[in-house]
Amino acid sequence: MELDRKAVEGIAHLARLAISEEDIPEYAHNLSNILNFVAQMDAVDTSSVEPMAHPLKMAQRLRDDTVSEPDGRDRFQAIAPSVEAGLYLVPKVIE
Amino acid sequence: MHTKTIAELAAGLAARDYSSEELTRAFLQRIGRLDPKINSFVTVTDEAALAAAREADRRISAGEAGPLTGVPIAHKDIFCTDGVKTSCGSRMLDNFIAPYDATVVERFKAVGAVMLGKTNMDEFAMGSSNETSFYGPVKNPWELEAVPGGSSGGSAAAVAARLAPGATGTDTGGSIRQPAALCGITGLKPTYGRVSRWGMIAFASSLDQGGPMARTAEDCALMLSAMAGFDPRDSTSVDQPVPDYTATLNGDLKGLKIGLPKEYFGEGLDGEVAKVIEAAIDEYRKLGAEVVEISLPNTGLAVPTYYVVAPAECSSNLSRFDGARYGYRCEQPKNLEDLYKRSRGEGFGPEVKRRIMIGTYALSAGYYDAYYLKAQKLRHLISDDFTQAFEQVDVIMGPTSPTVAFNIGEKKDDPVTMYLSDIYTIAVNLAGLPGMSIPAGFVGNRPVGLQLIGNYFDEGRLLNVAHRFQQATDWHARVPEAFA
């Protein structure tokens, strides 16, 4: 499989990654190589195999629906790029 | 003091041969003097280390000390450390001062271990050579032009160079075992769920596991005893008692059944590395073990399977880095989408972006069944190979890495070749099993690691098997000349 420029741009958009124009050919080349490499998986018939959900075949543990973490808002917002009145600031979303 | 193991340092502290403060100062001085040669630390926490050492000295005087009280260690910069920069080797987190301690860090603090600083690593633990770090490559103390392995390359190099007697690491596809092998130290990746992942920055959540890196199996046993155990804050943490790993180190190996997977000794394995591994296996025969050939027929599928599962989980985990709440934010974003795209595009390095894109592609509409679901099915086959093998044998052995350390820059531009350097370690993560690497010899001046793979929760046996080898050999005691 060979990913073209348009495919790389599409994936980068889905991943919300800005990549520069001149890097696209290299991404196309490397990503295509990786996908061709993982295509070795197709050689095995897995129609009767169950997917592995957990290495120890354990179910996800549930906990009571109660507050277990202390309020750390001030500490967490102290390292935020931009906050005001306890809110995280990002560029305007609705004009 | 830097030549001593953790067990020896603990004995010296208990006997008051030196204080923790003296010990900590000695290691801090060594780091200051020698780390510029190898770049193994991202952050050195001098003042906090000395304060912790004085507190440890008080505990020792008061008779409240445990085996790690006052012993200096380093943490891989993937573990959150309250009030200390936690970069994960990335520009994305270059400004991130963690607001809490990871469970592993908290546990070492609770027993009075002294943190010297945070070690360099491949960006977000994605790499096998430490070349993807935002802070530049770590160099191998044995030969400075060689890589130390990765992703826990800073921890491995720091221990090998005697800048810290022990360090934490994490292993998603070999990131403890491969650098341990390439730097000539001992490293253990525990069973999935044995050590809490809380506060350990996530790469691939179904594979990630923290573990100890030190010079000896005995030291790894001491560290694992402190690290392991149930943590309600990690939903995949296993609620099972933690044995005293130091109590079972000396068990006799007579009658131990060792399986050698024929797939681990075939094409791709360097001939000189193979000789070292064969000599190590002979040592086990002398210790009374019985060696049989086994087969893990799906070995060849492990790397392709991993490079679907790990990128898929990484693309999901790393979506949290959005430039909004913490970490890197681009200058003057035009709108919200621009904020996301440029913060992530500028904050992540090329290998991380590649893996996010592979994972995004594999999980995108119409491709899920062909990639992620297929990989999870193959994972079952790979895991079943081990289950069957452990019906016949107690421990599986083979090389940790197909070659000794390669040179910096040698594989950097070819991701697939780089991925294949983890060919013997990756299946262990896919199956969730515990694995170790121990020093087994050298090719030229570059170390070779012997890999030991155990059944689920059989860390005690792995440590015992490794310890007995280290009683009979001295590969683990060799020191790189420039750091003696």
Question: Could you give the order of the helices and strands of chain B?
Answer: HHEHEHEHEHEEHEHEHHHHEHHEEH
Percent helix of chain A: 25-40%
The major sheet of chain B is characterized as: 8 strands, mixed
The total of helices of chain A stands at 3
Terminus-to-terminus distance of chain A:
42 Å
Strand content of chain B: 5-15%
Cα-based radius of gyration of chain A, to the nearest Å: 22 Å
Strand order of the largest sheet of chain A: 1-2
- H and E string of chain A: HHHEE
Low-confidence runs of at least 5 consecutive residues of chain B: none
Euclidean distance between termini CA atoms of chain B: 11 Å
Q: Please count the beta strands of chain B (DSSP E, at least 2 residues each).
A: 11
* Rough outline of chain A: flat
Oligomer: heterodimer
> Strand share of the residues of chain A?
under 5%
Structural class of chain A: mainly alpha
What's the overall average pLDDT of chain A, rounded? 92
Round the mean pLDDT of chain B to the nearest integer and report it.
97
Count of DSSP E strands of chain A? 2
Structural class of chain B: alpha/beta
